[in-house]
């Protein structure tokens, strides 16, 4: 009986590890193509998480934080030298005019939540 | 995104959406009744926010378009309110947690009132902590899970929920646990105290974090609120945002200068320390520029506003510091990479801990498995890693700005600590950049300063005695009138002082790195350095003696030739900046090689270098060769900084590992530089390197602590010490350690504020 418990717990544990890996580390975000402006809702992460914007053109990104989690109170677009405070329920606009193509990750102030800007 | 006011029902949503979608230029409009917002996609060429706002107001609602422009005061107030709320939660949860602990902790429990030992009472005390004080953990976890992400809150929510649920199960079904050979003992103290301690950590962390952005707040706080504008002979106080370029402003003693401008009348001593870091007040009079937000000390003056709003020097400084604080240091990459995987990996480790203790642990295995896996979840601290670099960068760049050292980005701050060679441009950087003519020498010897009255009467003619000082000045100044070189200015000024009448020059040509040439009448006149004379095949053998003597005194000597024949020499000397010698000495003490780069010849350059204590000189370098010289130095594997101020320094500034521009320099140079010294103080080059060293030391210590903490304590929480010493980590101690971990990182960064720059 005791051994059976161990087998069940071990199997459940292995399954939980696999599920955790799949759930958190194997997600594939959907890329949203943006031309002029985009609204990103900040609530437990960024929606949309991945946006693609044109190179050499100004794109306005409006962040609206509706999640009071302190971690999300700042957004950092390091490659664009932008660190902005995101007051709760307040729109904060960031203007980008990228001159280089590529993938530029952004995150919250502590690097816990992530998003990506793809410049094409 | 617009905030919409006045909506009551779903039909309001339809009406507003319809109005928006019918507005030309709007491609998409989504109105949300719950959040009272409208998300609008539009083409800014066709429609602006004002028109969108009008479209909404036309159908009876109000669209707020300015809600994002809250002042820093308002944001600060909000933060303070949040902190107050957090403080209440900390007090509440720690008090209730302590009461539960009193009723359960061996030893303490003997002195506890009977009701505290009652498990139901403990449950009643723990429940509000779990679901009211700890609500934020659940809310953050749920919204993160929707995005398939996990963070600190996820770990705390899972950990404390496990302890709380287990305790509740023990309370409700004690017989089941007793049947399994486990003592029916709840752990409400763990769930309540862990939440209390984590919240306490957050409270201190949030307070400390407010301090990291203090420099920016100070700079923003410097901005004047009003300006006394002189209009039609009357003085009117106008809000600062209504001041436009061209307005005349009066400033009285003790008042703040509202915007940048140029003094029209009056004189005063101005304290610019708050913006430039320059501690000594500067005397200013008509024609001098004044910087907005600096303090007028003594006199009253009127000035013309030349830069307002985002164009002022203060606004530019704020923008630069904000950009630097938003950039990421290369050293942060590893921490970023680890942070991205950290929380899921910790969850997996906690599961593994549970399984290992359940399968191989001593009795009661289930309890060991539960408490140890909860300890793993609680002790892991990704926040410390995330905070290690940015907090130090924020304090470091802010500290620099306070002392007139503007650092463009975190990468520059990081590179600056590795600088091994500093190359100084001579003119305008080490010297004041305002040379004066010291000697005029004829081809056959030095003429006295005393002018001959005979010569003065004939100045309009070229038939002057060939060897006279006036004749040499006349030719040289006539030629240099068309040049913008600082040496040219010195010669023209000398000619004006001597009241020498200038001649018309034709076919003027500036030859970069050589000099100038042109025709005065039918005479071909050339003025320049040795290189130019060689090019023109002019015999200079007669002047070798005086030439050597003048150059040995650190003077720049230009040779004047007319129709292929040497006429004379003009020696010009620039004053060395007051802070140059000390600045170089500090660098040398830091074992940093100091190099001077100049277009001057070797002898002049060596003389100046000798005065300043510079060992290595790169002389006779043409302006377009400076970049190549910097690259040559880099080839030796040394990290090279270039300090310059002129347009022609820009390529070298950009090529150097760290380009340092003097704040008095051209916009092009400042644009190309990584660091700008607005305090104009050459000692700040060493200060910038020092600041970089201190900041990097803080970052490394923070990262070492943050990584080390997790690498050491996660295995301890898993029970790695148990087989050897029988040691296990209680979840309560784990939460205390976790709280201390991020506080220590932020506090360590704040220590940078005490660094002497």
What does this structure look like?
The complex is a heterodimer of chains A (120) and B (757). Helix content of chain A is 20%, strand content 41%. By secondary structure, chain A is of the alpha/beta class. Chain A is elongated and about 65 Å long. By secondary structure, chain B is α+β, with helices and mostly antiparallel strands. Chain B has 29 helices and 27 strands. In chain B, strands 14-27-26-25-15-23-24 form a seven-stranded mixed beta sheet, sandwiched between helices. A seven-stranded antiparallel beta sheet of chain B has the order 17-16-22-21-20-19-18. Chain B has a six-stranded antiparallel beta sheet with strand order 6-5-7-13-8-11, with no helix packed on it. In chain B, strand 21 and strand 22 form a beta hairpin. Chain B is elongated. The two termini of chain B are 44 Å apart. Chains A and B meet through helix 1, strand 2, strand 3, strand 5 and strand 7 of A and strand 3, helix 3, helix 5, helix 11 and helix 12 of B.
Keywords:
heterodimer; A: 120 residues; alpha/beta; 6-stranded mixed β-sheet; 4-stranded mixed β-sheet; 1 helix; elongated; B: 757 residues; alpha+beta; 7-stranded antiparallel β-sheet
């Amino acid at each position: 009986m005791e051994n059976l418990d161990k087998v069940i717990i071990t199997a459940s544990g292995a399954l939980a590890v696999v599920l955790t890996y799949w759930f958190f580390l194997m997600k594939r975000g959907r890329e949203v193509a943006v031309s002029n402006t985009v609204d990103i809702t900040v609530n437990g992460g960024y929606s949309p998480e991945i946006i693609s914007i044109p190179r050499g053109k100004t794109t306005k990104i409006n962040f609206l934080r509706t999640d009071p989690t302190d971690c999300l109170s700042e957004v950092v677009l390091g490659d664009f030298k932008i660190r902005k405070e995101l007051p709760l329920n307040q729109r904060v606009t960031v203007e980008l005019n990228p001159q280089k193509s590529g993938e530029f990750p952004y995150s919250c102030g502590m690097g816990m939540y992530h998003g990506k800007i793809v410049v094409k | 995104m617009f905030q919409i006011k006045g909506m009551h029902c779903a039909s309001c949503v339809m009406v507003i959406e319809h109005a928006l979608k019918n507005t030309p230029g709007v491609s998409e409009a989504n109105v949300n009744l719950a959040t009272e917002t409208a998300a609008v996609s539009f083409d800014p060429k066709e429609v602006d926010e004002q028109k969108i706002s009008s479209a909404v107001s036309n159908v009876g609602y109000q669209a707020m378009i300015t809600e994002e422009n809250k002042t820093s005061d308002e944001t600060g107030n909000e933060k303070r309110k949040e902190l107050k709320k957090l403080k209440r939660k900390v007090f509440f949860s720690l008090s209730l947690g302590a009461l539960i602990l009193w009723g359960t902790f061996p030893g303490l429990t003997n002195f506890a009132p009977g009701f505290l030992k009652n498990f139901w009472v403990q449950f009643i005390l723990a429940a509000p902590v779990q679901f009211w004080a700890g609500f934020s953990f659940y809310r953050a976890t749920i919204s993160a899970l929707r995005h398939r992400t996990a963070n600190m809150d996820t770990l705390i929510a899972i950990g404390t929920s496990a302890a709380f649920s287990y305790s509740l199960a023990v309370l409700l079904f004690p017989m089941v646990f007793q049947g399994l050979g486990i003592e029916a003992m709840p752990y409400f103290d763990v769930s309540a105290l862990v939440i209390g301690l984590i919240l306490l950590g957050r409270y201190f962390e949030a307070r400390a974090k407010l301090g990291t952005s203090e420099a920016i707040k100070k700079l923003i706080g410097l901005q004047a609120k009003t300006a006394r504008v002189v209009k039609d002979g009357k003085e009117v106080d106008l809000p600062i945002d209504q001041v436009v370029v061209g307005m005349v402003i009066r400033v009285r003693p003790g008042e703040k200068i509202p915007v940048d401008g140029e003094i029209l009348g009056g004189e005063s001593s101005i304290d610019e320390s708050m913006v430039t870091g320059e501690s000594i007040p500067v005397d200013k009079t008509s024609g001098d520029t004044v910087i907005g937000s600096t303090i007028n000390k003594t006199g009253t003056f009127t000035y013309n506003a030349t830069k307002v709003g985002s164009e002022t020097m203060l606004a530019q400084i704020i923008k630069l510091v904000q950009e630097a604080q938003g950039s990421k240091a290369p050293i942060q990459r590893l921490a970023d990479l680890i942070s991205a995987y950290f929380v899921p990996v910790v969850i997996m480790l906690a599961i593994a801990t549970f399984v290992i203790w359940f399968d191989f642990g001593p009795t009661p295995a289930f309890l060991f498995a539960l408490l140890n896996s909860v300890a793993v979840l609680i002790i892991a601290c990704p926040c410390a890693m995330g905070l290690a670099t940015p907090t130090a960068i924020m304090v470091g760049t802010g500290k620099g700005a306070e002392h007139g050292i503007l650092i463009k980005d975190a990468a520059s701050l990081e590179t600056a600590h590795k600088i091994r060679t500093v190359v100084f441009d001579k003119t305008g950087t080490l010297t004041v950049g305002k040379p004066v003519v010291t000697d005029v020498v004829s081809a056959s010897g030095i003429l006295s300063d005393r002018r001959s009255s005979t010569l003065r009467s004939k100045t309009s003619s070229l038939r002057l005695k060939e060897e006279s000082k006036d004749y040499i000045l006349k030719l040289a100044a006539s030629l240099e009138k068309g040049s913008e070189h600082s040496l040219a200015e010195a010669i023209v000024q000398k000619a004006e002082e001597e009241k020498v009448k200038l001649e018309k020059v034709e076919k003027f040509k500036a030859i970069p790195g050589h000099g100038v040439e042109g025709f005065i009448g039918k005479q071909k006149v050339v003025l320049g350095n040795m290189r130019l004379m060689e090019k023109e095949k002019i015999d200079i053998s007669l002047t070798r003696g005086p030439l050597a003597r003048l150059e040995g005194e650190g003077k720049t000597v230009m040779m004047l030739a007319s129709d292929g024949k040497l006429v004379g020499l003009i020696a010009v000397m620039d004053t060395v900046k007051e802070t140059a010698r000390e600045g170089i000495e500090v660098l040398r003490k830091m074992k940093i090689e100091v190099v001077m780069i100049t277009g001057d010849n070797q002898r002049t350059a060596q003389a100046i270098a000798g005065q300043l204590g510079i060992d290595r000189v790169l002389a006779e370098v043409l302006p377009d060769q400076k970049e190549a010289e910097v690259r040559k130095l880099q080839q030796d594997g040394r990290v090279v900084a270039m300090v310059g101020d002129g347009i022609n320094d820009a390529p070298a500034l950009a090529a150097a590992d760290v380009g340092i521009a003097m704040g008095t320099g051209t916009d092009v140079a400042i644009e190309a530089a990584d660091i700008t010294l607005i305090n104009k103080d050459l000692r700040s080059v060493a200060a910038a390197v020092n600041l970089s060293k201190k900041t990097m030391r803080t970052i490394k210590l923070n990262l070492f602590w943050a990584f080390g903490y997790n690498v050491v304590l996660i295995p301890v929480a898993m029970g790695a010490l148990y087989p050897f010493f029988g040691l296990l980590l209680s979840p309560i101690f784990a939460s205390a350690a976790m709280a201390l971990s991020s506080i220590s990182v932020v506090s360590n960064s704040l220590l940078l504020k005490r660094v002497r720059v």
